[in-house]
């Protein structure tokens, strides 16, 4: 898993979700409710970072809700390419 700090993971997560939209199927293919349970059991910055990193990695592994491919987005957005390099 990446050694990104919480702050970096949060910034990267925000950029991906706010600029390009959420990963596809965040309540089926990736159950983000599981992250909530993890955070409630261990409400630490380290756990929050781990949850963010897991969601970022998932973002790069599937199509977005609007059908876009992360590879196509990365080809057009250098910031997304940098984020992908940090986590994949």
Give an account of the 3D structure.
The chain has one domain. It is 65% helix and 0% strand. It is built from 5 helices and no strands. Helix 1 (6-20) runs parallel beside helix 3 (45-59) and helix 2 (32-41) runs antiparallel to helix 3. The protein is globular. The termini are close together.
Helix content: 55-70%
Number of helices: 5
Helix-strand string: HHHHH
Mean pLDDT score:
90
End-to-end Cα distance, whole Å, is: 9 Å
Strand content: under 5%
Rg computed from alpha carbons, rounded to a whole number of angstroms:
13 Å
The outline comes out as: globular
Outline of the structure:
With 88 residues, this protein is mainly alpha-helical. The chain contains 5 helices and no strands.
